[in-house]
Amino acid sequence: MGYYSVAPYLVGMGVILTLVSTPLFRWADSPPGLTPGRTLSLDGLRGILAMSVFFHHAAIYHAFLETGAWVTPPSRLYTLLGQGGVALFFMITGYLFWSRLVQGRGKPNWLSLYTGRVFRLGPLYLFAIGVMCLIIASRTGWRLHPPGLHPLPKWLMLGFFQGGDINGYPRAVILLAWVTWTLRYEWLFYLSLPLLALVARRPHVAVAAAVFVVGLILVGLRNETPMASIATFGAGMLAGSLREIGFRNRLPEWATVLLVVMLLAVIGLCSTAYSPLALIGLTGVFLLISGGGTLFGLLTSRAAVRLGDISFGVYLLQGLVLTLFFQDTPLAVSSLRSPEEHWAFMLVAALSLLLVATVTHVMIERPGIALGKGFARTLTRWVARSDLQPAT
Q1: Is 29 helix (H, G, I), strand (E, B) or coil?
Q2: How far apart are CA 335 and CA 325, in angstroms?
Q3: Residue 312 near residue 124 (C-beta atoms within 8 A)
Q4: Tens digits of per-residue pLDDT, 231-244?
Q5: Mind giving me the DSSP string for 334-366?
Q6: d(CA 158, CA 154)
Q7: Cα(91)–Cα(85) distance, rounded to whole angstroms?
Q8: What are the Cα distances from residue 306, in Å, to 16, 38, 70?
Q9: N or C, fewer C-beta in 10 Å, the chain?
Q10: What is the pTM of this model?
Q11: E strand residue ranges, 31-140
Q12: Which of 152-161, 329-338, 378-387 has the lowest mean pLDDT?
């Protein structure tokens, strides 16, 4: 077995799914009514994607521990696990929020939408930044060094800005496995929603398709992440529009087989998820999943849905767990001795991450979501009362 063999991913995911399906993780289940109208296949997909990004970073860590370089792994599979995982995450975002606009005919409850996003992402994000700062303080001797805490305000902007090195600690972003860069694109999409709402009442399928095609053209002209993000959000919007006109009800029985074939084709033909061909293939995969494809029941299994419930913690906190396990610890030396030791320790780290993500989901994420809903209701009532006041 090599460092970039497919076996660690398949075996590791098998162990993880088996463990998460046990009663040990049942307290991660969402209470009834907490997430009404959820699509289980997308919840399960979100969980599989979060763990796939972890294995992407686990593959990166081999070269990082050996040379100090944070680079894309020399493996098509492990590259696509990360890049493809992020692309599909963006598609899920586009799908969910464009569907809300279409269902609300371009007039959703904006206060509820934006308050919900802040309280959904903010508490766990700030917790992660707090742990990162504690690690940096410990490694810099609990003393201030130039530039001190000046970069901290950017870090506190919930991912909209990429923060710099805190207290002179080099490449602080690696402590979080560089995952926070995706939050900026998420926020940019959220900020674009009022503009998209203006066209949500028009032939929305054509609007979504246009966004996707424009994104693909831009990727062809300039193969850069911002262009790819437009295509992926557009793909999610297209899936949402097709769902609204009944695409799910027309999905044939053999769709899951086609789904597997398309996944294998992307892995076999594409070296990056940010090429037009890969984005078209991943869009086909997402259309089939959002239309009801379950990968032979995997995406709607109890284990996958549970992973989906804690997926934000799995995604956001994995860098911190990898840091505590492998940076400047004896495990780093052991990990470099053989691929078997590397992946054995990575599996232990993955299981530890699952426990941390479950605890933070229950203790931080759920209370944050509940607080956000209460705050949104209060704001909505206050605005309603203000509108009813007589003009002076």
Answers
A1: coil
A2: 10
A3: yes
A4: 999 999 999 999 88
A5: HHTT-HHHHHHHHHHHHHHHHHHHHHHIIIIIH
A6: 8
A7: 10
A8: 11, 13, 30
A9: C
A10: 0.94
A11: none
A12: 378-387
